[in-house]
Structures are given as C-alpha cells and as structure tokens.
Write a structure and sequence with these properties.
heterodimer; A: mainly beta; seven-stranded mixed sheet; four-stranded antiparallel sheet; 11 strands
Amino acid sequence: DIQMTQSPSTLSASVGDRVTITCRASQSIVSWLAWYQQKPGKAPKLLIYKTSNLESGVPSRFSGSGSGTEFTLTISSLRPDDFATYHCQQYSTYPYTFGQGTKLEIK
Amino acid sequence: QVTLKESGPVLLKATETLTLTCTVSGFSLSNARLGVSWIRQPPGKALECLAHIFSNDEKSYSPSLKNRLTISKDTSKSQVVLTMTNMDPVDTATYYCARIPIPTAGTFFDYWGQGALVTVSS
C-alpha cells in the first residue's frame, strides 16, 4: 500500500496567517491527490482534487500544488472557520489511502 | 440536493456481523458517472477506504479486509449496503458512505454521509 505522511501533525496559527501543510507519498502518485477538511464530529469535506483543482464552493484562499511524491495544501489567509483537521488522500493506486491528518489549531 | 445517510447498529459484540445501509438522495445509483464507497475512521486514527461500488455493479474491496466485506446496492431503493463479518473491538470506528463523483477521473469523494459510530465490545 502507498503510505501517505502528513506534516506537521499539529499546526498552531493565527487568523490571517498563511499556512502550508505537506503530504508525502511513499511512491509516485503523479497528481492523483485530494485534500479534505474535517471538523470535530463531522464528515470530511472535499477541498481539492487532482492536486490543485478547487472543489466548487471552496474559497480561493485554499490552493494545492505538487506532483510525484510531495504535495502541499496552502491557506493564504486563515479565517476562524479554517481551524480543523486536514487529510490528504491518494487515488493513484489501489487501495486508496489517506494521510493521518494535520490538526490546524488556533495559536 | 445530494445527501447520503448511514444507518445500522450502534453496538455490536465481537464475532457478530455488521450491516450498514447508506440511503442516498439527489442522485441515482444507476448514473453511469457515479459510485459510492464506504470509508471508516477509528477514533483518533486515519480514514480507511473499505469498499466501492459503481453503477455497472463493479465492486472493489480493501485487500486487507476483502474476506470480511460485501458491498451491494439496490438502485430502486437508492441504497448501498455494506456487510462486515466477524467484527472485533478494533473495528470500532465511525463508518461513512461517500459519493465518487466521476469514477473515470479517479476515486475521490465529493459528498459524505454524517457517519455512523459503531462500537464493538468484547
């Protein structure tokens, strides 16, 4: 199975900050990567698919980049609603796998 | 409006069989461009794909759980059913069903159910 490793596991930041979360794959997944946001007690919400494609309705302050084995999710200016856990998911090779999550918390 | 909703038992004993139903609305399970998956999340742990089913009834399973899982759909009832046999306390998790929006573009998930917390006691 492809292992997905996110860093950091926890990120403390303030409203207005620019933050970047990294997701590394144990082998190349080309561009087949999605990002999700999850709030406590809620289901994940799709933010980005195929590395950099913003899902409809997702604010433009979210962006994704990368290829091969290293990918990033960037939030350009944090809003209070952005404090949540973020997951990456590869869908290049079955079984499709998720990272362990990055918790974005208020500093 | 697309919605998915999981239903099933909250508490099971070890060795019992779990049956979960995902009832969907706002789209058809016969739509050639869609699929539905089951995904679980143990407390404090990563999400894990369990099984997928597509409009042509093609199915795929997690290799590590394949022997215990069955996924099926009833298009007339707009339901996708997952059964998992021989449940163990390590299977305690929130189980989600989720929609695959464009299977030909890859298996990611655009709509999710609210989740069903299943606890397995020994």
